[in-house]
User: Fold this.
Amino acid sequence: MGYMKEERILDFFRDLKENLIKYEDSYGGEFGIYFDDDYVRYGSKIANLQTMIYNCEDPSDAFDPADCSLDEFYDDPYIDVYISCEGSMYEAVYGYVSHGVGVRREKKSSS
Assistant:
């Protein structure tokens, strides 16, 4: 893996899970996400995003061995976590461009 230790990555997933549930609670039916192709991966592990959010007490329980490591899947040494999602799920997570000290970092506008 890249630069983050596994425990920090799992802390990120715990925060992500909590924030997505809060988002869904706030917007109700507008959340309307489809999880068929939404997944997260780190190291040599992969999980369906829906399973991670709704079916597991701790996000770490959702992960299974991946067919290849993240290094092989996405050839970039600076990426520790890969999240694949579309639609409203993408909109919900897009503002989280990096994770550190529990602060949400907003995307900077290009005006």
Q: What stands out?
A: The longest helix spans residues 6-27. Residues 33 and 89 are 6 Å apart (CA to CA). The helical segments are 6-27, 49-55, 70-73, 87-94. The chain has a mean pLDDT of 75.
